[in-house]
Amino acid sequence: MGIATRDSLRDWLRAPGSLSRRLARLGERFEVQVLRQGVAPFRALERAALGLPPRGLTVVREVILRVDGQPLVWARSAVHQRATIGPWRALKGLGARPLAHLLYDDYRIHRSELQPRRLSRHGHTRRHAERQWLAATGEAASPQMLWSRNSVFSRSGAQLRVMELFAPDLAVQRPGRRGR
């Protein structure tokens, strides 16, 4: 396999709409593997994206998205803890259902522009994703698993940040098309 670059992942980094629905079109079985859901301190990038104060707690959901058993995306969503008793309360009972069920079926939810981002190989998010990927799949994450996209969803004044980190295997796939 070649190196996963921003250009080779461009279609995925910029694909509008539901990533889960696009991934599901690649194979027969799409699944969400929940790695963690719970309360955690804010991370600086999340706090900045959500426009939150320096202190407080966030509800975090971290998952791996799989197609026909193959792990393709590590994702992290974060919302201020207060919002889970308000506009984002359905997040608590989501379980293994895709977040897309909440985000794209409600006309009151609006999404920011997608922001592609290359992670630092040794940054906190990359190291955290690597540890979870290894524990969940039994295999080390590819050193080329560096490209992500970020966006913020707004509903009734409360915001939810979603970060999706792409496995390099997606570089050879086209969003929304079946085939391997």
UniProtKB/TrEMBL annotation:
Source organism superkingdom: Bacteria
Role description: Removes the pyruvyl group from chorismate, with concomitant aromatization of the ring, to provide 4-hydroxybenzoate (4HB) for the ubiquinone pathway.
Entry-linked HAMAP family: UbiC (MF_01632)
Main location: cytoplasm
UniProt pathway: Cofactor biosynthesis; ubiquinone biosynthesis
EC nos: 4.1.3.40
Keyword Cytoplasm listed: yes
Localization: Cytoplasm
The reaction(s) this protein catalyses: chorismate = 4-hydroxybenzoate + pyruvate
One GO molecular-function entry: chorismate lyase activity
Annotated positions binding substrate: R61, L99, E164
Protein name (database record): Probable chorismate pyruvate-lyase
Similarity comment text for this entry: Belongs to the UbiC family.
One Pfam family from the record: Chor_lyase
Lineage: Bacteria, Pseudomonadati, Pseudomonadota, Betaproteobacteria, Burkholderiales
Keyword annotations: Cytoplasm, Lyase, Pyruvate, Ubiquinone biosynthesis
